[in-house]
Amino acid sequence: MQAHARLGFILLLTPLLLWLSLLIIIPHIDMALLSLRERVGVAQYETSPANYLTFFGEPLYLRTFMRTAVMSILATAITLLIAFPVSFYIAKIARGRVQSALFLLCLVPFWVSELVRTFGWMILLRETGVISSLLQYLGIASGPVEMLYNDAAMMVGLVYTSMLFMVVPLVTTLQSLDDAVIEAGYDLGGSGPSVLREIIIPHATPGIVAGSIVVFMLSLGNYLTPTMLGGKDSLWFTQLIYSQFIVRFNWELGAAFGFMLLILSSVIVWAMLRLTGQTLEKTMG
Amino acid sequence: MIPSMPQPRAYRLIYTGYIVAFFVYLALPLTVVAVFAFNDSQFPSLPWQGFTWNWFFGDTRPQIGVFHERPILRAIGTSAFVGIAVSALSLAVGTTNAFLFNRYQFRGRGLLYVLMLLPLVIPGIVLGISILVFSSRVANIAWDAAQWDVTALRPGLMLVILGQFSFITTIATLVISARLQKFDRTLEEAALNLGADRLTAIRTITIPYLMPAMIGAFVVAFLMSFENFNTTLMLVGSDAPLTIAMFDRLKEGSTPLLNAVSLLLMLGSSLLALVMIAFQRK
Fold first, then answer.
1. A81 touches B: beta carbon within 8 Å
2. Which residues, in sequence order, are bridge partners of residue A39?
3. Cα distance between residue B247 and residue B171, in whole Å
4. What's the pLDDT score for residue B183?
5. Per the UniProt record, which residue ranges are transmembrane (chain A) (predicted)?
6. In this predicted complex, what is the ipTM?
7. What distance in Å separates residue A245's CA from the closest CA in chain B?
8. Which residue of A128, A259, B228, B254 pairs with B45 in a disulfide if CB–CB is 3.0 to 4.6 A?
């Protein structure tokens, strides 16, 4: 029986180890090694931090990096602000069938590809688009209005694309909050805002953290939305990675960029977990 | 705030209005995509030129419908193939992972569990390039050592499948683990007492219990693979899956053909989602 259990253990462990080592760990180590390589001649390479120096020395790269980080945090905050009242409504105010119907309605848009969603916003916002035509029809605008290709359009798209990943964890945590606790808060003399601040938000923290991490990651790593909805000035860091790898074929610099993106996302996710006293196992698992 | 608490009428009205506005925002882009699939015009925009089915069934230029557009049909086929391969692989590894973490206590379990979750917090594009870098390195080594050209390790479907598998497995593992945790182990022990060996007990008791979660994991994995963009973009070769093919067309300018494809996608994924919900209910 012992030997039997041991064999079973090894059989179950093997796929996990193969998957993690061959597709996650070793490729990332390899990418780190590549990013520390400098081409000094034809097929001649040296280990050096040159790619990172290029990254920190070129204002365009550094600015794009910072901009992507700040905009992703902003997108996360906006998504949270929009999603919280909606999640509260679904979890605490809607009842029975309405509740499950609203929850399902929130999920529906996300069963279709991000490309379709982005395409929808393009049809709505562009110069010949639906909103522009509507404004002209109503006499608010005298000519076609271009609403596409700027930061606001990109933000609308980013928030839209990641909404689900905020609503689902929020609804789940809010549903586990007993109504009696909220009532007790009022009975003890609390007002709306103080109940929200001292009872509801602390209870929802695990959901807020889980949602924020996923939304932040999705925004940071997004390529499609900034490319299709953003303008010439709204360069996104993933576009730099793409152009180094596919257009310029400078894999060394591209790998360094990839690593910077990875570090940025890890630091911010770690900080978010630390600040709220959560762990990755609890929020994601 | 909650229904048992009296609130001013104005507050309730504003709140309800906000919820309505939110759902309009949610539905708006998808609605316009669907509606303009039927516009009898070269562009998916106003003015409305009349209703037509041509973007689905048309077979003459300039209105060639989805069902006569070879490249799009081929891309759908490619996506379906990749999706099935990724789902099957993720389901297999997800199931073994779930059993491993559920049934065994061993040194390094905590660390492995965190590592298992890691793909969720790695940006998709970084996953893509790291696999691209590593597979190219292996392919180059094989070529230098034995003049052996391993085409599977060059950008193409094989790498797309591996790239998507690398993070979808985590999701499959979580979905299956969640159900396995609720399983009553005494049922398995009863089977053992009745003379079944361990594998028979798992095959006849545990696996049927897990089936809804396994089907759920398969469908979720398929949908995630079908709509994946970031990882695929970095690993794709000459056979483009649907999202990449549509992206290339969208960059050149769009015709209502793309709306028609999108509408079909919406219908397809809603159908799959309904199938999954039906299985979960059982």
1. no
2. A45
3. 26
4. 86
5. 7-29, 69-90, 102-124, 152-171, 207-225, 253-273
6. 0.86
7. 8
8. A128
A275: closest CA of chain B, how far (Å) = 18
Q: In this complex, is the C-beta atom of B121 within 8 Å of any C-beta atom belonging to chain A?
A: yes
Tell me how far apart the alpha carbons of residues A201 and B124 are, in angstroms, rounded to a whole number: 31
Question: What global pTM score does this model have?
Answer: 0.87
Taking the domains of chain A in order of start, what are their residue ranges? 49-284
Mean pLDDT lowest among A76-90, A134-148, A229-243, B105-119: A134-148
Distance in angstroms (rounded) separating the CA atoms of residues A184 and A189: 9
Give the CATH number of domain A49-284.
Answer: 1.10.3720.10
Residues 6+ apart with CB under 8 A from A131: A124, A125, A145, A147
For residue A36, give Cα distances in angstroms to A23, A50, A57, A88, A257: 20, 7, 16, 48, 11
CA-based nearest residue in chain B for residue A229: B251
Listed ranges A71-75, A161-165, A241-245, B270-274; the one with the highest mean pLDDT: A71-75
CA-derived radius of gyration, chain B: 24
| Partner B contacted by A198 (CB < 8 A) | no
Q: Which residue has the tokens 């077979």?
A: B59
In one letter, which amino acid is A282?
Answer: K
**Inter-chain contact B125–A242, Cβ cutoff 8 Å?**
yes
Residue of A nearest to B1 (CA): A192
* Beta-bridge mates of residue A45: A39
Spell out the domains of chain B, with CATH numbers in brackets. Answer: 73-281 (1.10.3720.10)
CA distance B204 to chain A (A): 18
| Whether A237 contacts A222, CB under 8 Å | no
Give the CA distances from residue A260 to residues A68, A234, B125, B126, in Å, rounded to whole numbers and listed in that order. Answer: 12, 19, 12, 10
pLDDT band at B47 (very low <50, low <70, confident <90, very high): low
Q: Alpha-carbon distance A101 to A99, whole Å?
A: 5
B-facing residues of A in 34-53 (CB < 8 A) are: 34
CA–CA separation, B260 vs B245, rounded Å?
14
Q: Which residues of chain A does B238 touch, with a Cβ-Cβ cutoff of 8 Å?
A: none
Quick one: closest CA in B to A87, which residue? B19
CA atoms within 13 A on the CB side of A109: 32
**Cβ burial A159-192 (10 Å sphere, 16+ → b, else e):** bbbbbbbbbbbbbbbbeebeeeebeebbeeebee
Which CA distances in Å does B111 have to A132, B108, B115, B164? 53, 5, 6, 23
